[in-house]
Amino acid sequence: MKKSLILLIVGVFLLIFLFGDVMEAAYSNWVNSSDLEILNTLPTVTLTAPDDNNWTTNRTPTFTWSGNDADGDSMTYQLNLTCYPTCSVDNRLENESGTSHTIASYLRYLKDDNYYYNWSVRASDDSGVTFGNWSSIRKIEVQSYVLVTLINDTVQFGSLGMSATSNTTYNSPWPFWLQNDGNVELDIDINATSLWNSVLNPSTYYRYKVDNKTGEEGSFDWGESQTTWKNMPNSTQEEGIVNLSWIDATDSAEVDILVTVPSAEGSGNRESLVVFEASLSDGGGCSGSGAMGDTTGSVNNFVTGTANRLYHSLFTADSTGCVSYAHIYFRDQGINIGLSVGLWDSSGNLLAEAYGDTASQDNAQWYNFAITGDPVGVTSSTSYYCGVIQDDTAGRIFLEGNAISSDYNAMTEGTLASFSPPGTEVEATDHVICSWNNAAGDPL
Known about the structure:
This protein is mainly beta. Helix content is 7%, strand content 39%.
C-alpha cells in the first residue's frame, strides 16, 4: 500500500510539471505592442421639431434636432428636405453647424395641391468627410392661408352735382387699398350693390379699375388684372386682381372708383357695398413678376465648365416675384441644338428647369423657354446661378462667335439636378446672356 501511494504522488507531480512546460511554450511567442486602434463611433441625430405629420402655414419653417457623439467630438449637420410627389425641383440639402435651420427661400408646394415634404438630418464629426446614418423621417405639409386686409375700406366722394363725375385716381378721395396678409398668391373678385336709384349696375355711371400701390409696383399680374375702367358688376363676381403677391415688399393693390351722377337721379345720400372675395391663385405659390440676369448682351459674366455645362457668375435678382421663362442669348452655328437651362440658389439647390431647341440659325439671338411645372418665386437682392447644358447633339455651341467645345456626352433632364454651380465656377471670356422673368418674349 505504501509503495503504491508513492508512485501515485510522483505521477501527479510529473503531470503538473509537463503541463507547465506546455503552457510556457504556448505563450513564449507573444510580444508587447504599443499600437492600439480605437474605431470612431459615428454620431446620431434625434429630430426635435416640428412633429411628424405637421401642418403649417409658415412657408419658411424652422427645423430643430439634437446630435449625439459617443466620442464627444464637435459635429456638423445636413438637413435633407424632399418634396413629394413629382416636385423634386424644390428638394433642399442644407449644411448647418448648429442644431436648427430656418428655410431661407420659401417652400413652394402646398398641401392644397396634395404636395408634402419629408425631412431628416444626419451628423458628421469630421467636418463633413463622413456622416452617420440619417435620422428617422418626419413629414411636413404647408397649408395655404388666405387673408386680405382692407387698409382703406371706405371711399367718400362728398357732395356731387347733377351729371358730375369724380374718381379716386389721384387719391382725392382715397381709393380702396387691399393688402395680402396671407401666405399665398391670391386672385381677388369684385362686385357691388347698385349705387344709384335711377340706374342699376352694371353701368358707365359706376366703374372700377385696379392700380399699383405707390412703392409696391409689381405686386400683381398687370396684364391679367382689370387695370382699365370697367362697369361695376352687381351680383356676379368678376376677377379684378390676378396673382396678388404675399411677399411683404409687394403685397398691396389699389382699386379705384369712378362715379358719374345720372341726370335723372334725385337728391339725397347714396351708398354701395363693395365686396372683395379672395381665393388661392391658379398660379400656385409664386408671387408677382420677378426678374434677374442680363438682358443687354454686353457683359462678359457667363462662365464655362466641363461636360457641356456653362455657369453664370453669381448674380442677384432685380425684383421680387415670379419667374416662368428662361431666356438664353447665343449663336448656335446653324445646328439644331437641344438645351437644358437651370436656375439654382446660392447653395446649389436646383429651383427651376426649362428645355427647348434652337432654331438652326447661324446668328446670335434670344431663345425663350418656359420652365417645367409651376412658376418659381425669387427674392430681390438674393443670389442665384443660371446654367445651360447642351443636350444630346454632337457639335459646338458658338457663344457670340467664341466656340465652347462639347464632350458629346448625352445629357438628360435629370442631369441638371446633379450639377453644383458654386463648385465649378471659373472665369471665362465667352458670352452667354442669361435672363429669367415672367414674360414669354425677348427680355430686351
